[in-house]
Amino acid sequence: MAETTSTNEEKLPLNGRRAIPPNNSNDEENEVPEMEAFGLIPRGFNPRDYLRVVDIYMFKDPHEINKQEHHTDKYYNPKLIVRRGQPFQIQIDFNRPYKPETDQFWLEFLMGRYPQQNKGTYIPILVGNVLKPGQWGAKIIHRENNSIRLSIMSSTACIIGKFRLYVAVWTPYGILRTRRNSATDTYILFNPWCQLDAVYLDDDKEREEYVLNDVGIVFHGNAEDIKSRSWSYGQFEENVLDACLFLMDKAELELSGRGNPVKICRVASAVINSRDDNGVLVGSWDNTYDYGVAPSAWTGSVDILLEYYSSKQPVRYGQCWVFAGVFNTFLRCLGIPARLITNYSSAHDNNANLRVDLFLDDEGKVDTRLTKDSVWNYHCWNEAWMTRPDLPVGFGGWQVVDGTPQETSDGMYRCGPASVQAIKHGHVCFQFDAPFVYAEVNGDIFYTKMEKNGTQVVESIDTARIGQLIVTKEVGGDGMMDITEEYKFREGSDEERLALEAAVMYGVKKQSTEDAAYQPQTDIDMDFQVQKAVLGNDFKVTITFRNKSHNSYTVTTYLSGNIVFYTGVTKSEFKKQSFSAKLKPSSSSSFDIVIKSSEYMSDLLEQASFHFFVTARINETGKILAVQKATTLEIPTLRIKTKGEMVAGKEMSVIVEFTNPLKQALENVTLRLEGPGVLRTIRKQFGRIPVNSTLTWEVKCIPMRPGLRKLIASLNSDALRHVYGELNVQIQKP
């Protein structure tokens, strides 16, 4: 009997604007007919008389040619994963030898529910004699008995994601297709090894680091006292690739836009945070983390992404390095070279005027009521490497993307991609969000006093502090690389002034100093030093005055010690001290103030950050000197050891130890341990650790992958957070 297509299929939800609903899910599928008839089929037609596909072999194991040549052998995923613009091989077994003169077959790659050829979601590939670089094509490279081996080239502009593969055979009465078979699904990723790809990176060591390294380092603390910790990106772990593709579905990025790294970065920077789109992570900066995990307790991205992928609900909680760590995993997983950046003394300036206003009251203290801007001790974001065909030549390369929700951009909490090169030269007119990033790394701190009559008097201006150091992990090692020069010219150089003038011309607001009375003080210099201290100990702050004039002066000095969030926002003032001092002509004098542990321990926040603010009034002239500094206490570390031989596939032990250094017991202690390729994240709760006692935790595991791996542990408790430990381990081949 002749086949007809049924008309009672579900009706598509149509609207007046488009004939096809939006195609923005990689997960959904359409029904593909196995027999697509050209018309009525004669009674005697038997599909078995024609060429038929018996089997398709994808060469998809990690040791086989495709994953080896495409640098995808580390993905813990049984399906074929290849990079675009580079040939890969498959083998098709037919029911009889293939005869090129009479047999005609082609391949079809499909994505989403409404595949369309002009959108790049339906790709028919005919077999030809030659592969053209950067364009879809296939050619036979080997024929034997009933089998042929094909080399397939994908387009360098191909959509990133998971394609379904069908083989179609032509017969006089219709097209015969292979059955839907998820084993032949093919993931296609960005290709930094391919010169025609928008993310091409020409240095092999950099590709090894920025695409293939699954652990990294987060630098935190402050510029005077840099601290570092490891972070497990885990972009190759089981289900992480699917979770990353799900993020693009969640962001409702049209499938046809998924070959463009600029679009992907822009939507990802919004979906990494939960503001306005129920994205991956809920930000919390208030030191209370009920019903969630404290940001400092995470050791890597995998738990966060997999929890989001399975629950479809935002994961609690993140702060800037957590957003940046997860974003880095997303980018590297899809094949976009990426690195995590730390900017020390990052300006969060609410009105993008390149000026952070700190208002002082009569005593010279910061007036928290009037002061709206803040300087973060540090802020982490990401850089992603790509060309920018949407901008003039010269602005490709590293682009700033930031998933931490700070300000809205085009109505959503997102930031970037913004060209680092454009930021350096002040060309902030080029999309996206360059003025915001420019203000984070440039700008001046104005100490302004409000007089009783409402006039503002600028007491001092600090031009060098904001964006004083910008760093990332070095290539191929665990050290730090200073990249400040990529964002800005040397402080005070002609080029720096020019870049600033360009930025102002392109609309960055800069208030001139003339609009407020400002005469700087030149006779006397003041500075202070904070002694390095371990959490739980006393330490001292030394204030030094240098009187360069021939006059004697008396100064009234006020020191304010505050416990701050790393965002520069004050939680509480724990130390106030004033003193008067005589300054002799042409001489220096120093004064010590002791800070006792009992003064700060009760209010301490997780990053053990203090902010000291010293103001001094010269009684004879009424001038005010102001200096402020952030400082971080040394937090004790976890010790990690291993026991037994470390061989892939054999059981070994990992031991984590910690001694409580505080003068109080630690309550509600949680330990986490993870290491990509060695063990999945394990959590353990301990009730309490008494004063001076040592906790020991032994974990048995079977490492999967040989090579140099990293174990990362964190400890979290009510009174103590940001405790980390790490260990490099060499896993031998069995």
Automatic annotation (TrEMBL):
One GO term in the molecular function aspect is: protein-glutamine gamma-glutamyltransferase activity
- Complex and partners: Tetramer of two A chains (F13A1) and two B (F13B) chains.
**All copies of domain Transglutaminase-like, residue ranges:** 312-405
Q: Name one GO biological process term.
A: blood coagulation, fibrin clot formation
Write down what this protein is called.
Coagulation factor XIII A chain
User: Which PROSITE patterns does its entry note?
Assistant: TRANSGLUTAMINASES
Give the span(s) annotated as Disordered: 1-30
Residues binding Ca(2+) are N442, D444, E491, E496
What are its GO cellular component terms? cytoplasm; extracellular region
Domain of life, per lineage: Eukaryota
Task: Name the Pfam families for this protein.
Answer: Transglut_C (PF00927), Transglut_core (PF01841), Transglut_N (PF00868)
Q: Catalytic activity annotated for this protein?
A: L-glutaminyl-[protein] + L-lysyl-[protein] = [protein]-L-lysyl-N(6)-5-L-glutamyl-[protein] + NH4(+)
User: Which coenzyme or cofactor does it need?
Assistant: Ca(2+)
Q: What does this protein do?
A: Factor XIII is activated by thrombin and calcium ion to a transglutaminase that catalyzes the formation of gamma-glutamyl-epsilon-lysine cross-links between fibrin chains, thus stabilizing the fibrin clot. Also cross-link alpha-2-plasmin inhibitor, or fibronectin, to the alpha chains of fibrin.
UniProt lists the family membership as follows: Belongs to the transglutaminase superfamily. Transglutaminase family.
Q: Which keywords describe this protein according to UniProt?
A: Acetylation, Acyltransferase, Blood coagulation, Calcium, Cytoplasm, Hemostasis, Metal-binding, Secreted, Transferase, Zymogen
What residues sit in the active site?
C320, H379, D402
Q: Which organism is it from?
A: Pardalotus punctatus (spotted pardalote)
Q: According to its UniProt record, where is this protein mainly located?
A: cytoplasm
